[in-house]
Amino acid sequence: MTNLVEKYREMKKRGEKVTALTAYDYPTARLLDESGIDIILVGDSLGMVVLGYEDTTSVSLDEMLHHTRAVARGVKSALVVGDMPIHTFEKPAQAVATAKQFINAGAQAVKLEGGVSHAAHIEAITDAGIPYMAHIGMLPQHVREQGGYKVKGKTQSEAEALIADARAVEKAGAFSVVLEIVVPEIAKQITHAISIPTIGIGSGEQCDGQILVTHDLIGLFPWFTPKFVSPEARVADEIRRAACAFIERTRGASAVSKRPGV
Ligand code: KIV
Questions:
Q1: Residue of 110, 133, 177, 178 best suited for mutating to test ligand 1, as the one with most atoms within 8 Å of CB
Q2: Which pLDDT value is given to residue 170?
Q3: Alpha-carbon span 243 to 221, nearest angstrom
Q4: Which of 70, 213, 228, 237 has CA 20 to 30 A from 186's CA?
Q5: Ligand 1 neighbourhood includes 108 CB (under 6 angstroms)
Q6: Ligand 1 pocket test target in 22, 199, 224 with most atoms within 8 Å of CB
Q7: Which atom of ligand 1 is nearest to the CA of 178?
Q8: Does residue 43 line the site of ligand 1, with CB under 6 A?
Q9: Cα 85 versus chain centre, distance
């Protein structure tokens, strides 16, 4: 555990950007790993982009473990991080038990959403020797209470709370911290305030690294793309194109074979 904290602190000192993407299945994980990504997160965004739920609040531990096992089978070099779903870390002891299940499923580290409020949970996980990635800012597991995916750090008190969260997760032993849709200026302040890398998603360019949901990056979930994402590919269009070509080829062939004498 200490080694991973040291490794990521050193990366930050050297100014090396941390790259992270999500994966939920074997082929995607293997392709990302072969591309040289640092971290593969089996995110609970699984619920939305793979399982078709409205948000991440319906994702179960069994679903996360099933997909973590698939990802782990495809990865040789990247760090596989398992995302602990809602209601699986209510108390520190439960957080440790859940984290151990992710490790048994093939993850090398875990993530859960929360800052100061979860310092004891995080400390229990890191004390158990399990590497931990923090997640502060917009917390999708609380989207319903928060009334949507809203930018965090707009007010002085929100900004101060975020900096306190970042310091708390660092003290509790996190090796890195995801900042989700945080005002870029505040993300920059957090980045300067702590010695572990900040990994931004929709939080500007001043973070020590970046993470994205792969489906957003490759255009595989065309029904919704967050404003801050610039897709690098249009995989959904390719799937539709290939499916249409197959349908046409198949129907065309049957039309030909039904012709008398053919
Ligand atoms: O679940 C997820 O994919 C995440 C990332 C958005 C950071 O938590």
A1: 178
A2: 98
A3: 16
A4: 213
A5: no
A6: 22
A7: 7
A8: yes
A9: 12
Q: Of the candidates 55, 90, 40, 82, which has an alpha carbon nearest to the alpha carbon of residue 217?
A: 40
pTM of the predicted protein model: 0.95
Contacts of 13 (CB under 8 A, 6+ apart): none
10-residue mean pLDDT profile of the chain (262 residues): values are: 87 98 98 98 98 97 98 98 98 98 98 98 98 98 93 97 98 98 98 98 98 98 96 98 98 69 50
C-alpha 20/C-alpha 131 separation (Å) is 16
Instruction: State the alpha helices, DSSP H only, in 91-232.
Output: 92-104, 119-127, 143-146, 156-171, 184-193, 214-217
Active-site residue (options: 63, 113, 170, 180): 180
CB 262 within 8 A of CB 252: no
Nearest CA among 183, 63, 196 for reference residue 133? 196
Cα of 254 vs centre of ligand 1, distance in Å, is: 45
Sorted by where each starts, the structural domains of the chain and their CATH numbers stand as 2-231 (3.20.20.60)
